[in-house]
Amino acid sequence: MVADYEVTAEYVAANEVYVAEGTDERLLGFYALLLGPPAELDLMFVADDAQGLGVGRRLATHMQERARAAGLASVRVVSHPPSEGFYRSVGAIRTGTVPAALPAITWERPELRFALG
């Protein structure tokens, strides 16, 4: 899904981007938090072979801690449909559906929110 996606140096300089590395310094996953407004989890990806090892859960926990430290009350997530269950398992609540964004995205996406209260 992300084979042609590029996170540029400019994107990293403009946003809070965090990575999870293995003991061998291999990239296991990353996320980007846009402080907004509105605050949004723009990207969160975990390497295929690192899924199921708790990397995503640790990234989600870190994201919520960073968002709270920034004074945010909530963080919006527009999820890839197969990832909705993961986000719900780490505390996000579904708030709606975002329509397809043709031509690049041809499917509706779940909209969720982390309440940081």
Q: How many distinct beta strands?
A: 6
Overall residue-averaged pLDDT value: 94
According to CATH, the homologous superfamily is Gcn5-related N-acetyltransferase (GNAT)
The CATH level-2 architecture is identified as 3-Layer(aba) Sandwich
**Helices and strands, in N-to-C order?**
HEEEHEHEE
The CATH class: Alpha Beta
DSSP summary: helix tally: 3
* Biggest sheet architecture: 6 strands, mixed
Low-confidence stretches: none
Strand order within the widest beta sheet: 1-2-3-4-6-5
β-strand percent reads 25-35%
Round the Cα radius of gyration to an integer and report it: 14 Å
Q: What does the overall shape look like?
A: globular
How many domains, as an integer?
Answer: 1
What structural class is derived from the secondary structure elements? alpha+beta
Keywords: Acyltransferase, Transferase
GO molecular function, one term: acyltransferase activity, transferring groups other than amino-acyl groups
Pfam families: Acetyltransf_10
Protein name: N-acetyltransferase
Describe the secondary structure blueprint for this structure.
Blueprint: H1 9-14, E1 16-21, E2 27-34, E3 40-46, H2 55-69, E4 74-78, H3 84-89, E5 93-98, E6 109-115
Parallel strand pairs: 3-4
Antiparallel strand pairs: 1-2, 2-3, 4-6, 5-6
